Amino acid sequence: MDNVLKTEGLKTHFFTETGTVRAVDGVDLAVGSGETIGLVGESGSGKSMTALSIMRLVPSPPGKIISGKVLFRGRDLLAIDESEMRKIRGDGISMVFQEPMTSLNPVYTIGEQISEVFRYHRDMSRGEIKEKRLLCCIIFGIR
Ligand SMILES: Nc1ncnc2c1ncn2[C@@H]1O[C@H](COP(=O)(O)OP(=O)(O)OP(=O)(O)O)[C@@H](O)[C@H]1O
Ligand SMILES: [Mg+2]
């Protein structure tokens, strides 16, 4: 099976006044095409930081990806520039952030927030966006 996403020796550390926190310390994972994987671990074990590292959204400072590779469709995301990364974020790779009350905007419906992704990343007509949005809402049972 082809790997869509792969990390190799991914390390993200936080450099704080009280010392170094090894939040992500050598993560190797692979996600094949059409495959779903779950990361399981106690609170603070680094699940979110692994995802944020893949998206290159680690709060820096104090965090920093210090080594490793993030291969997305064969491309090393840690080696491309920010403008290229911005194209991949929300299009190739998306993230629903923890704490929906702060990461989603309660003023807009989920459907409206899903539409934003298509509007930003795809050259779609209003009708096509509406159709896609409806499909997502049906799949997820939301409005
Ligand atoms: N700003 C920061 N400064 C220092 N350490 C940090 C900072 N942010 C996160 N960490 C550390 O990174 C580690 C991993 O945190 P992370 O949020 O990835 O955990 P998690 O597995 O997602 O936990 P949860 O199940 O609670 O969501 C934690 O031990 C935390 O202390
Ligand atoms: Mg988390």
Description:
By secondary structure, the protein is α+β, with helices and mostly antiparallel strands. It folds into 2 domains: 77 residues, no CATH class; 39 residues, no CATH class. Helices cover 32% and strands 28% of the residues. A 4-stranded antiparallel sheet has the order 2-1-3-4. Helix 4 packs across helix 5. The chain is globular and about 50 Å long.
Name its key features.
143 residues; binds magnesium ion; globular; binds adenosine-5'-triphosphate; 28% strand; four-stranded antiparallel β-sheet; 4 strands; alpha+beta; 2 domains
Q: What is bound: which ligands?
A: adenosine-5'-triphosphate, magnesium ion
Distance from N terminus to C terminus (CA atoms, Å) equals 35 Å
Number of helices: 5
Question: Kindly state the mean pLDDT as a whole number?
Answer: 90
**Low-confidence parts, pLDDT < 50 over ≥5 residues?**
none
How many beta-strand elements?
4
Class from secondary-structure proportions: alpha+beta
Shape label:
globular
Major sheet: arrangement of strands: 2-1-3-4
Order of helices and strands: EEHEEHHHH
Largest sheet: 4 strands, antiparallel
User: Beta-strand level of the residues, as a percent range?
Assistant: 25-35%
Domain tally: 2
Radius of gyration: 17 Å
In percent, how helical is the residue content?
A: 25-40%
Per-chain topology:
Layout: E1 3-16, E2 19-32, H1 47-54, E3 63-72, E4 75-76, H2 82-88, H3 100-103, H4 110-121, H5 126-140
Helix pairs in contact: 4-5
The protein binds adenosine-5'-triphosphate and magnesium ion.
